[in-house]
Amino acid sequence: MDQQTLAMTQEMDFSLLALFLRASLTVKLVMMLLTMASFWSWSIIIRKYITFRAARSEADAFDRAFWSGEPLDELFDQIGPAPDGASQRIFAAGMLEWRRSHRQDGELIAGAQARIDRSMDVAIAKEQENLNSGLSFLATVGSTAPFVGLFGTVWGIKVAFEEIAISQNTSLAVVAPGISEALVATALGLLAAIPAVIFYNKLSGDADKIGAGYEAFADEFATILSRQLDA
């Protein structure tokens, strides 16, 4: 490398901002898309972490109240037909159907157990849908971001070679900026994809565990109501 080329290379700004500003329009769009995807992924991750922690706390608190020995009708009257907590909503769905299944003379309408089970299953499905909302975006980012970044890199290298051909100069001062700009796209793709994949697996597993807890509670509650139906 001659002294002139070395001097030109040292004078170039290789900061991320400078690389972005020098990139072609297509590569800039790829970089912005990946940056926005990364920020949105982190917002989902943080929101889900807070939501899951609150769901576990609510489930633990309601579980203690449910098994405290307090009559179920009194517990239902306390929380009302439209409570805030997920476990409470599942319980309320079962209790509402339990009360609706009684005639005015106090006798039960046939098929009460099946209707109660279906009501709680519907409530559980809604809660699981809420738990899983947003996770599909993390899965999409995790699977596509590396390829989007690779597209930006390929395009950037293509533009760099075109500039080399136009200038008819293959010195490092000409080649380095274009290659550096192109590689940033791949780096951003990995930066967006890796956390998305890791936290998708973690949060998906947490959602399944919480959902399994709701189903276990519904089964226990259905068993208690079944004993009363058979009594």
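That was protein one. Protein two is written in the same sequence-then-structure order:
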Amino acid sequence: MITITRFAPSPTGYLHLGHAASALFSAKQAGPDGRFLLRIEDIDQTRCRPEYLDAIYEDLAWLGLEWEQPVRVQSDHFADYQAVLDRLSDMELLYPCFCTRKDIQAEIERIGNAPHGPDGALYPGTCRHCSPSEREDRIAAGESYALRLDMAAAIKRVGRELTWFDRAVGKQIATPEIFGDVVLARKDTPTSYHLSVTHDDDLQGITLVTRGEDLFFASHLHRLLQELLGYDVPEYHHHGLLTGPDGKRFAKRDKSKTLRAMREEGLAPEDVIKLADQF
């Protein structure tokens, strides 16, 4: 079986050295006989910009990378993600959450010692207990809401232990409950990273998901979604993150380390590739 990998940046800023390292790593894992795909993850339409999208193509081509066409641009496929949400809704695994961030914080403070997950304090489940009629009335009244996954119901539906394999650390037992009732869609963003990436990896036949170790825990949740939706399970390789002299990982706000800035300083592609080749 050939290896199919992908690099999936978001056009919310210019690519930096860490992005270059991740893209090059993914392409290398595909190998000469595999397939390397580029996917644009631009579901956050409030932060994504056309100029950053153009820069992604320019920067990656400058590095010498080649990818298959057409590129999947997630904002062109919101209907696909709605169909997935509809499937989960039909399983009675989603519920509307009307809580604001302020509401959630107040409830967490009231409870005290709230359990925490990879993204902070877990949602306390306030709206999970709303009756169907209350939900219908609040939606009809025009209240804004997000769609959350009923984690306990989802795990119960699966009914067995789930595992996944990471090439860096071996077999893993999925513990999606660490995320609690995670948000899968919002009014202003009709899908989430977790939902869209899981769907697209299956749709595109990705056999090896390569991404930074900062997303390691997300794989626990993605494994649950794969099982619920009948998707194939790829292998994973969560690579290390490049950091600057201060020990902090590179970020898009570090303009001096963007590929565009490095190119303007006179660095050649091979110079950047050498700097990026650290994991």
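The longest strand covers residues 35-40. Keep this in mind for the problem set.
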